[in-house]
């Protein structure tokens, strides 16, 4: 099995086992970025919208009341079934479709808005994901990406990606902001506005959400605690008597528009 396919199968397994947790996760369901998303977009009632890797459906749920139709997609069938059971009775303008973010089952230039929140660090080929976003967007269509990002400093980037991978086997890599900007440029997506913030995780809840057992949790804890002062200060590791209370990770939110000369290839 090619490496990308193995990664996607791991994603399916991990999120199938933790589907309900993502429906109720406070960091996913109640982030301040959800209101900011509406403030930035000012959605139109005639918009057709795509939510990629919808997970617990928190973005789809936020946007649905303001648009014509929204397609909530995810690669994990059990996750999507749970989300559909929760949201379909509430929203008559929402469809749920199993889909790979790197090979979307839609024709070109179908959507006024594409959204993807707290998911691309699970994608093995983020370049293909961005190409697909550009392909399915209408000209001047809008795209919002929200995800964890790695600092430009190599030591800091390696640290965050390592402890995330130890915690969650389906984690691939947090890209840096500069890496994302280059992918957008290559596909003709023009940055309109962006904000970078620190996202605080209460450690016990965060580490238990994806870890399989106590041994895995201990491995994550040991790795984080063994980091040097520079690492601890950057990620604001709060520790009391060998017990981690919280950590902070960089999150980037960016709004792009599809330019008139956008280039993309069907994967």
Automatic annotation (TrEMBL):
<keyword id="KW-0808">Transferase</keyword>
<dbReference type="Pfam" id="PF08241">
    <property type="entry name" value="Methyltransf_11"/>
</dbReference>
<keyword id="KW-0489">Methyltransferase</keyword>
<dbReference type="InterPro" id="IPR029063">
    <property type="entry name" value="SAM-dependent_MTases_sf"/>
</dbReference>
<dbReference type="GO" id="GO:0008168">
    <property type="term" value="F:methyltransferase activity"/>
</dbReference>
<dbReference type="InterPro" id="IPR013216">
    <property type="entry name" value="Methyltransf_11"/>
</dbReference>
<feature type="domain" description="Methyltransferase type 11">
    <location>
        <begin position="50"/>
        <end position="145"/>
    </location>
</feature>
<protein>
    <submittedName>
        <fullName>Class I SAM-dependent methyltransferase</fullName>
        <ecNumber>2.1.1.-</ecNumber>
    </submittedName>
</protein>
<dbReference type="GO" id="GO:0032259">
    <property type="term" value="P:methylation"/>
</dbReference>
């Amino acid at each position: 099995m090619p490496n990308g396919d193995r990664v996607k199968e791991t994603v399916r397994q991990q999120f199938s086992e933790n589907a309900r947790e993502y429906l109720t996760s406070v960091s996913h369901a109640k982030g301040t970025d959800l209101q900011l998303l509406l403030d930035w977009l000012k959605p139109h009632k005639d918009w057709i919208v795509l939510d990629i890797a919808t997970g617990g459906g928190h973005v789809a749920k936020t946007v649905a009341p303001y648009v014509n139709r929204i397609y909530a997609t995810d690669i994990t069938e059990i996750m999507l079934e749970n989300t559909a059971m929760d949201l379909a009775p509430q929203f008559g303008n929402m469809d749920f479709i199993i889909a790979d973010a790197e090979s979307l089952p839609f024709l070109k230039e179908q959507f006024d808005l594409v959204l993807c929140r707290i998911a691309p660090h699970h994608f093995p080929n983020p370049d293909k994901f961005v190409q697909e976003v550009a392909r399915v967007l209408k000209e001047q269509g809008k795209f919002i990406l929200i995800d964890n990002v790695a600092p430009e400093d190599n030591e800091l980037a390696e640290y965050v990606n390592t402890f995330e991978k130890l915690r969650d086997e389906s984690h691939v890599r947090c890209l840096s902001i500069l890496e994302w900007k280059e992918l957008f440029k290559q596909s003709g997506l023009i940055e309109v506005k962006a904000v970078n913030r620190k996202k605080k995780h209460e450690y016990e809840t965060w580490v238990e959400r994806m870890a399989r057992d106590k041994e895995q949790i201990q491995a994550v804890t040991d790795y984080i605690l063994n980091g040097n002062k520079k690492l601890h200060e950057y990620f604001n590791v709060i520790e009391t008597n060998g017990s981690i209370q919280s950590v902070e990770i960089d999150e980037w939110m960016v709004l792009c528009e599809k330019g008139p000369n956008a280039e993309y290839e069907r994967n």
